[in-house]
Amino acid sequence: MENNIGGLLSRRAYMNPDVEALVDVHANKRFSYKELNEYGNKVAHGLASIGVKKGDRVGILLMNSHEFVATFFGIAKLGAVVVPLNWRLVPDELEFILKDSGCTVVVGGEEFLPTITELQSRGDKTDIKEWVYVGDEANRPAFATPYSSLHEGKSVEDPALGGSNDDLLYIMYTSGTTGLPKGVMHTHNTQMWALITINSTADFRDNDRYLNPLPMFHVGALTPALCAMHRGLTHVMLRAFDPTQIWEVVQKEKINNALLVPAMLNACRLVFDKKAHDHSSLRWFLSGAAPVPKALIEEYAGMGVEIHQIYGLTETCGPACVTLPIDAIRKAGSTGKGFMHTEVKLVRPDGSECEVGEPGEVVVRGDHIMIGYWNRPDATADTIKNGWLHTGDVAFYDDDKFIWIQDRLKDMIISGGENVYPAEVENVILGHPGVADVAVIGVPSEKWGESPLAVVVKKDPALTESDVITQCDGKLARYKMPVGVRFIDAIPRNPSGKALKRELRLQFPSA
């Protein structure tokens, strides 16, 4: 049987037509599997009518919505390639992604009209031929096709599936250590194996209702949403994260589980009111993107909610390691063991496996691993070696072979669940004529887990912190902006010229 992720929705609609598939909380809309599949079919036919075909790249610049879900499935059914766009990025960043991926169509929401208009005005700096607008018709720009024309009056019948198996399903961009984003390539098969892997490991049960507050341009939102469809569960979607709304929706929709990054867990803890919030249906939260503090795990345990720490990457289509319910408290703070259908081990620089307690790099192997980085064969070869994905993260085994994430070989900062690569921020700051040198490090943040701090060597003695921040404004997404600037006479570097960021973190422990 050939795997097409859009075809999976058709199969689920055949098996469970009346089961509730999707709840769009913001729009107050509900879809059975039959209704969602028909909606996706209409969008597929509509996209085909404007020329989208197998292999074409289609960008989605939408907040969480039923339109996002229908568009994703419509693209997948045609065998075209989804490019989920991070709506927190500024036009310069999006321009690079659109040009690099070769997107020819963008489906964009009204909230991002200034960005869409700016990108459209840049002409051949991207390859976009068709802009599709989702929103109030009164605000639609003249150059854009209304989204309604994609689905109104279109056939509800399944289109002929245009791609399967090793054909590309999506290219998801992640910030690069060189400062340029890299497009992670996943196929229908790698995504299918991620679904099989998670649904054979995680504690999902028949009739569960899964809450998704994470943006769908992230693998941490997209893959679990597809898992719910694969398993025939109900996907309850929030437009954006709101800690108070989390508890309100848990109560109203009888939510059983969700995935929240640690900063979200902490925010939810702060607003929880046991008198006002009935969370009796809730069994567990998955949490990833950064280690979850043990105290936070224990606090939720006191509320009767298990925290299952998950470790994964965009490059693994989500799954790598997870703690199971039986270990949630006993191994609080560990990221558990490898998922089913996933091999995880810790290795020394020579590739040999580490002993218990010995720090080593986390490497992952499985059929859900990316096939590579789009147009980046060198980066692919550096990351996938002999079938093993090298993560750049450092961990150790305990006596039971549970994995405990310790640090990162790479200098990535994780701020509120978002990846921030220092090189990207450094490149922007170095564009200021008053800056001689810079290194960006992560410093602890109560709210976000980590935040970027710029350590700068002045070229112009009159340079101020405000000058550096202003240099970044408009060139970087807000979550990448430095929360502070510290000045230093020289950046400490090793003989090869690499900044010694561990020394800087000791010298500047906070913002």
Strand content: 25-35%
Through-space gap between termini: 55 Å
CATH architecture of the largest domain: 3-Layer(aba) Sandwich
- Helix share of residues? 25-40%
Cα Rg: 23 Å
Stretches where pLDDT is under 50 for at least 5 consecutive residues are: none
Q: What is the overall pLDDT average?
A: 93
Structural class: alpha/beta
What sort of overall outline do the alpha carbons produce when their principal axes are compared?
Answer: globular
Largest sheet: 9 strands, mixed
Number of strands: 27
Give short descriptive properties of this protein.
511 residues; alpha/beta; Rossmann fold; GMP Synthetase, Chain A, domain 3; 3 domains; 9-stranded mixed sheet; 5-stranded parallel sheet; 15 helices; 27 strands
Question: What would you say this structure looks like, in words?
Answer:
This protein is an alpha/beta fold and 511 residues long. The chain has three domains: 5-164, 3-Layer(aba) Sandwich (Rossmann fold); 210-215 and 238-408, ANL, N-terminal domain (Rossmann fold), CATH 3.40.50.12780; 413-507, ANL, C-terminal domain (GMP Synthetase, Chain A, domain 3, 2-Layer Sandwich). The chain has 15 helices and 27 strands. The strands form six sheets. It has a nine-stranded mixed beta sheet, sandwiched between helices. The chain has a five-stranded parallel beta sheet with strand order 4-3-5-6-7, sandwiched between helices. Strands 17, 18, 20, 21 and 22 form a five-stranded antiparallel beta sheet that branches. Helix 1 (5-15) packs antiparallel against helix 2 (33-49) and helix 9 crosses helix 10. It is globular and about 65 Å long. The chain starts with a helix and ends with a helix. The mean pLDDT is 93.
